[in-house]
Amino acid sequence: MSGAEWATNVLGAVGGAAVGALALGAVVCRLNRNIADWVFARIWLSMSDEVDKSLKVYKRELFSSGLTGHVLEVGSGTGVNLKHYTDPQLGKDIESLTMLEPNERLYEKLEEGVNEASGTARFPIHTINDFFPSDAVATQQYDAIVFVLVLCSVKDLRETLHEAYRLLKPGGKLIFLEHVCPPRVSLKYLAALMISPLWTSYGDGCKLTRQTEEAIVEFDWHETEIERFTKAVPHHGLSLEWLANNIIMGQATK
Ligand SMILES: C[S@@+](CC[C@H](N)C(=O)[O-])C[C@H]1O[C@@H](n2cnc3c(N)ncnc32)[C@H](O)[C@@H]1O
């Protein structure tokens, strides 16, 4: 066997083993919720600050109007948005904040942040370790319900939006910043379809091709304001984030 043939065989074997291991890991995550939560928490704990930084300008705009009264944030993760709510300008009209997060391993970090922020916040902050829709908030009414990078992961998008709509007071706002399905006729859409089985398994059920805007506008909103943009990604697009950089951001008023 020549050196080149030997190298090709070794590369083929290593590549095959890596793909096999990834596929096996994906199956394990699908079968065991606890392991899937652990894997996703490891991933999100390592990248949530970076993702937050890359959305800083947009979040400033997102949170600059509509944060009034009683606010519910669904899927708070590690609590990266706390700083916006407790910002003396952005959060000046908030009366209470409830943060819902089902993943226990992220919830620990969220609680740490909330304990710290509670010392200086002018309003009470509650945390709830549960999925939305949740009995713990089912009888409240909110002035604003916030979703940031969450609607891609919820099990049932329409049920989630239906419950959010129900919990909003008349005049209340759904505030969202979400990655959505890339244009149907694009290389990115094809790539998203191909990688989806692995992405969804390791990424807490996140769907790259979810039609979130279409689902939001189905409700009987008094007014909607939606911006669409493509977020810059590191390494000139050679990053997996490229698959999730078609973003919608805005608010829908009941
Ligand atoms: C990609 S992370 C985003 C976290 C945070 N919003 C941020 O911007 O950093 C998605 C979060 O949604 C949470 N999540 C998924 N399904 C949920 C549900 N049905 N109810 C509440 N949170 C949910 C996950 O546990 C995870 O923390």
Automatic annotation (TrEMBL):
- Which key words are in the record? Membrane, Transmembrane, Transmembrane helix
The record's section on CDD domains has: AdoMet_MTases (cd02440)
Cross-referenced Pfam families, in alphabetical order? Methyltransf_23
InterPro entries, per database record: SAM-dependent_MTases_sf, Thiol_S-MT
Where does the sequence pass through the membrane?
A: 6-28
The highest taxon in the source lineage is: Eukaryota
Q: Which SUPFAM superfamilies match?
A: S-adenosyl-L-methionine-dependent methyltransferases
What is the name of the protein in this document?
Mettl7b protein
Organism name: Salpingoeca rosetta (strain ATCC 50818 / BSB-021)
